[in-house]
Design a protein that fits this description.
The chain is α+β, with helices and mostly antiparallel strands. Helix 6 crosses helix 7, helix 10 crosses helix 11 and helix 10 packs across helix 16. The radius of gyration is 23 Å and the shape is globular.
């Protein structure tokens, strides 16, 4: 936990997915695509390919670059079709059996599936499936798709997939691979992202456009909410098996999750984040000498704030990019220095200055407090914090790793109280309407909001009645250590 102290106080996306059809370098392209999506999950990565009537897979804990970095690994994944997955767990434990893509043999042949999101009715579906004889091999809600497809009474694979999707509730973007088809789908509200691209004659699915950029692929469009796309030798077939409904894309993708060089839902993430910073400057500007981002996620908003306010932008905090997820187990005497593993104050910029500190969000507040103390220790005359999202008051149940509500600092304290806790001279968050304006909407229409913003408003667009406070499905058993 020492080296991960900064990550501990952030929200984490569950995962990223990638799929490619009819390309001779499918495994290499999938590995590159997953590398571009590494920010969406750092716990594990996996690839499944198909070639000559056989499926091949390689799955391992750790980063993509650590596990798909040799010719031997890539050559062990032959075929011109493949899907891949990077994982940050929100549902299920951190064991190899929970690494995706999942694979199973059906009456129609093999099928592999990779899923981004969280099913809010997973517990009820799992219980029902087990009662009819289903045997689960993982603790993930993603495996529910496998069993629903297996037990479907329909004959065609596409119909079985639709049958399964109509039984689940929650947020999902998924890719699936059979012997003949590559399938992509999004939930009816489009909470989680999925884009469609092409390189030459080969179609691609990916969580973000940055995964297309890395392999030189062309972005075609976003997969639409509630859309099912099937790609095979006859080309691309699109269908919408769900009743039309207004989309509710996750607005936190713009705030933090998506890579700043990606386009999601037709909007450039970097520009939206700069817009949020400009909204912050208009809504809660205060006199200062320098605008300083908490790197790296606070940089675009800080640039937008600086441009709108006319106050110089400075890198007052320098990030060490070479700290891994594990480092050392510190003694109690040096544990308080953990924040300096990843961030260090640039005292020449901060000393004697009134500092406006810009970050993307405050979750627990523990890291914010340490950052503020670090800036003050570097000689700042005053520290004013501006946050590029509204207060995070409610947990996410749709595929984001969120603390229980009682651990969310904004759920239990006013803005003034938070300011005292983290030790700033002033604190302000962008308003919910300011966030919507930054994303290209006039305001949040309370009757029909354009995004899923439940973590800020408590307005859950998909039923959460079965979910626990931790937004996780409790496993039926725990895997012990092997001797």
């Amino acid at each position: 936990m020492f080296a991960d102290e900064m990550n501990f106080d952030k929200l984490h996306e569950e995962c990223g997915v990638f799929g490619i059809y009819d390309h001779p370098d499918s495994a290499a392209h999938t590995a590159l695509g997953l590398h571009a999506l590494q920010h969406r999950g750092q716990e594990a990565a996996g690839i499944v390919t198909f070639d000559n009537d056989l499926f091949y897979t390689h799955r391992a804990s750790g980063h993509v670059g650590d596990n798909f970095n040799s010719r031997e690994v890539i050559e062990s994944l032959p075929g011109d079709c493949g899907i891949g997955h990077v994982r940050y767990s929100t549902s299920g434990e951190k064991h190899v059996r929970n690494i995706q893509p999942l694979f199973a043999e059906f009456t129609f042949g093999g099928l592999a599936i990779a899923h981004n999101g969280n099913l809010t009715n997973a517990a009820a579906l799992r219980k029902s499936l087990i009662s009819t004889g289903a045997i689960f091999q993982s603790t993930m809600d993603s495996e529910i798709f496998i069993h629903l497809i297996a037990t479907s009474k329909f004959k065609k694979v596409a119909d079985r997939v639709v049958d399964a999707l109509k039984q689940v509730e929650g947020a999902y973007s998924l890719v699936a691979l059979t012997q003949k088809k590559l399938i992509g789908a999004r939930d009816p509200l489009g909470v989680r992202p999925l884009v469609l691209g092409r390189i030459g004659k080969s179609y691609i699915f990916a969580s973000e456009t940055c995964a297309l950029d890395i392999i030189g692929a062309e972005y075609i469009r976003d997969v639409e909410p509630g859309e099912l796309i099937i790609i095979d030798k006859d080309g691309l077939q699109s269908s919408k098996p769900f009743a039309p409904t207004k989309s509710r894309f996750c607005v936190f993708e713009y705030v933090y999750f998506a890579r700043p060089d990606s386009y999601v839902e037709g909007k450039h993430v970097y520009q939206v984040r700069k817009n949020i910073g400009a909204e912050l400057a208009r809504e809660s500007h205060i006199k200062g000498d320098v605008v300083v981002p908490v790197p790296d996620s606070g940089v675009p908003a800080a640039l937008g704030y600086a441009e709108a306010s006319g106050i110089p932008f400075e890198l007052g905090i320098i990030r060490n990019h070479y700290v891994g997820r594990t480092f050392i187990e510190p003694s109690d005497q040096v544990r308080h220095l953990g924040v300096k593993l990843k961030h260090n104050a640039n005292s020449s910029v901060l000393k004697g200055k009134d500092v406006i500190l810009v970050d993307d969000s405050i979750v627990r507040g523990t890291t914010s407090k340490k950052i503020v103390n670090m800036v003050r220790d570097a000689g700042a005359k005053s520290v004013h914090m501006r946050i590029a999202s509204p207060p995070t008051t409610d947990p996410c149940f749709y595929g984001v790793d969120t603390p229980d509500k009682e651990k969310l600092i904004a759920a239990n304290n006013s803005v003034e109280e938070i300011a005292k806790i983290i030790g700033v001279d002033s604190l302000a968050f962008v308003s919910i309407d300011g966030l919507y304006r930054a994303a290209g909407e006039a305001s949040r229409n309370s009757g029909a909001p354009q995004f899923c913003d439940a973590c800020f408003t408590g307005d859950y667009p998909i039923s959460i009645k079965e979910c626990s406070g931790e937004a996780k499905t409790a496993p039926l058993f725990k895997e012990g250590k092997r001797k």
